Amino acid sequence: MIGSVSSRERRLIALLILTAVVAAAYYLVIEPILAGFSARADRTEQLAATYVHNLRTIAAIPRLRREAEGRRAAAATFVVNAKNIEAGREYLKDRLQRAIEGAGGEFREGSDAEGQPGWARARATARVTLPQLTASLTRLQNEPPWIIVESVSVTASDALVTGQPSAMDVEIEASVPLRPAAGR
After folding, report:
1. 154, CA 20 to 30 Å: which among 36, 68, 117, 138?
2. How far apart are CA 132 and CA 119, in angstroms?
């Protein structure tokens, strides 16, 4: 049986109901609104950081373009523009022949050699003296596009003549990276 409730108990029950209503109002209405404000503030900070990053990136475009153009120009000194590997090999054989003949040597033969994909590789045989060999290798080393001299085989079968440099049979094997030439 429920007896009558005293006024003190009524006030206590009313206070508990009021506390429950205030807690429910806080968790159901006020907290989601405050969380939304916080989320929007975080998103605003993130967008501001993205905006500053984008401004810096846009401001760097001219500098990046100049660097890319400089690297593209520098790449021309390291690679040969050729439409295929055979054209690259012919270029390389011509280059070896010009270097040997430019130094005064006797170019005998240029031949193809197997290389890695994207690389032209060739071999040249010649008859040169030591100063001519040095001049040939110097010329190959100092003219762009720079090639890689992979091996130099020297056969000095002639007897050394006093006061005169002896002629040697030389085989030079070289390679150069290729970049496909643009079709016209």
Report:
1. 117
2. 27
Q: pLDDT confidence of 77, banded at 50, 70, 90?
A: confident
3-state helix, strand, coil in the chain (%, to 5): 55, 20, 25
> What's the CA dihedral at 135, 139, 141, 143 to 10 degrees?
170
- b/e sequence 57-95, b meaning 16+ C-beta within 10 Å: eeeeeeeeeeeeeeeeeeeeeebbebeebeebbbbbbeb
Contact present, 88 and 80 (Cβ < 8 Å): yes
Between β-strands 106-112 and 80-82, what pairing exists: parallel, antiparallel or unpaired?
unpaired
Token output for 146: 């720079």
In the chain, where do the E strands start and end?
A: 80-82, 106-112, 119-128, 148-155, 168-180
The answer, yes or no, to whether residue 184 has pLDDT greater than 50, is: no
- Say how many C-beta atoms besides its own lie within 10 A of residue 140's C-beta: 20
Residue 173 backbone phi and psi in degrees, to 5: -115, 125
Contacts of 34 (CB under 8 A, 6+ apart): none
Residue type, 153: S
